[in-house]
Amino acid sequence: MRGMGASVNLALEQLKMNGVRMTPQRHAILSYLMDSMSHPTADEIYKALSPTYPSMSVATIYNNLRLFVEAGLVRELTYGDDSSRFDSDLSDHYHAICKNCGSIVDFDYPPLLEVERAASRVTGFVVEGHRMEIYGICSACNTTRN
After folding, report:
1. What is the rounded CA–CA span in Å between residue 14 and residue 20?
2. 32, 33, 51, 76: most buried, per Cβ within 10 A?
3. What stretch of H or E contains 89?
4. Which 3-state string (H, E, C) describes 96-125?
């Protein structure tokens, strides 16, 4: 569940247990990610937080995002050549992506476990997961096009 202070505190505790020192900047980045529904890029996070944290650099954002991904707190979403986007919602869910503006919207759907089993049978892979993206035009872009 997004936007919950308890989630941020839980994540911070997890980092502390892994020996990661909590700084105000790390707290701000993690809080922003957990409150965000937009799957922001590192640059978007920087633009949102730099007025409050003028000493924070884009490199600081990237380094902390890597740390969060490695700690299993955040998922990195890569789509083609675009900048990576980051998602703090680790639950099983899928994404609908606007081909016009690039916005990403979460939607829940029962996990496609049969697809994973079929892939394993056909390829011999030990399947560790999958990702599915739906592409189209979001309602905001569709309204402006008509």
Report:
1. 9
2. 33
3. none
4. EEECCCCCEEEECCCCCHHHHHHHHHHHCC
The four Cα atoms 71, 41, 83, 7 give a dihedral, to 10 degrees, of 30
Scored b (16 or more CB within 10 A) or e, 112-121 reads eeeeeeeeee
CB-CB contact of 11 with 34 (8 Å): yes
Helix (H, G, I), strand (E, B) or coil at 133: strand
d(CA 62, CA 26): 11
pLDDT at residue 145 above 80?
Answer: no
Alpha-carbon separation of residue 91 from 18, 74, 75, 107 (angstroms): 22, 11, 10, 11
Q: What is the pTM of this model?
A: 0.75
- For the residues 32-57, what does the mean pLDDT come to? 93
pLDDT tens digit sequence for 93-136: 899 999 998 888 988 888 889 999 999 999 999 998 888 889 99
Q: Any bridge partners for residue 98, and if so which? A: 136
Residue of 28, 31, 27, 24 lying closest to 4 (CA atoms): 31
